[in-house]
Sequence to fold (432 residues):
Amino acid sequence: MPRVPRVPHPPVRVPRVLKLVGRAVGLPVTEVRAYWVQESRSIRSGSVALAIGLGATLIAGIVLASAQGRLEGTPGLLALIPAAIGMRGSIFGALGARLSTGILTGLFTPELSRTSWLGRQIEASTILSFATATQAGVLAWAISRILGLTTIPILDLVAVSLIGGLLSSVVLFFVVVWMARRSFDQGWSMDDVGAPVITATGDLVTLPALLVGTLVLTIEPLAVTLGALGVVAGTVAVVFGIRSHDATIRRVVRESMVVLTIAVTIDVLAGIVVEARAEQQFSSAALLVLLPPFIANCGSLGGMLASRLGSKLHVGQLEPRVVPGKVAALDFSLTVLLAVLAFTGVGVAGWLAALAVPGVDPLGVVTTVGVTLLAGAFALPILALVAYLAATTSFRFGFDPDNHGIPIVTATMDLAGVICLVAAITLLQLGA
Fold:
């Protein structure tokens, strides 16, 4: 496979705050600078991927802010949205991580057939897409009812989830396969570009797909029929996957279903937090615009870190220690740099997007950036810790970190990201 050689780059300037952090954790600034120079191509590609993702998720934020009437008229939909979006990011982010590892280890070939390695990976992800689309609708209904929240009937919610999930999955299959083939041909690292682009695409297509799915509710017999078929299809898909004769498919489905069930539950709770706090903290549509891009960036940064750590575990560059070593710390420093750029971008772009939404009274740019940077400061330690623990713990117990890292990180950051954003809004007293 051709690889693009790395060329020397001028020294990268290390911000003063990172110098202080480096001294505090015993990581010399000179090593951080040298690592950033070594990974300058990854920094550029990661920044571009995050920027592309930011643009896509801002569109999702505008759609969300513009769909307040539909959300109010479909109780339970707001609880379903993070789960539906999160599952697309978890399933296809994990697929991207597995394909990245396959490229590094020589398993990947561009051939797409039922028996090829790529084809078996896609078949496993298709099974998971059917299963989790149904699961998200059932759990969104059940948890909402347990907590006393109003929601549409269970089969209606499953029908909406199934339509939204499958429509968005078709798009994501094409995106992930195209990225893998391009990475294979051009020598790109999917660890640096996969998570942001996949997460952003999931955000961009899943929310409109869910809104399209709500159209089926106007024909109640059709909604009930689709919901019932979804429950059956999801159950059959899981049984087929865990009993598959192919070892690759069987392992992916068996390892993924447990973690995806936990992930979808966390995502539903994140949606319920938003739904319960929407009237207070998100009463301003300008703040609602920030929600998808902020959460997406949390998941993207965590997914990038988890994917990098997983690849290094596979090739023996990283030891699964309880306390992170120097290799992991250097990757953490890279995540900090990208996080500062990403959350600043979310604030500026969110302010610009709020200006574009009719009827939205935007906050000041300094205030908006202050919200995202403060929320990002709360979220960054959480995503770094979760990414490291998910990758190393799964590897230590003999599981594939590519099946666990990204789903655990994205689901955790869907909930933690909402909480961090709510906390920042509350501390800055913007919820009135």
Remarks:
- Residues 39-427 form one domain.
- The radius of gyration is 21 Å.
- The chain has 14 helices and no strands.
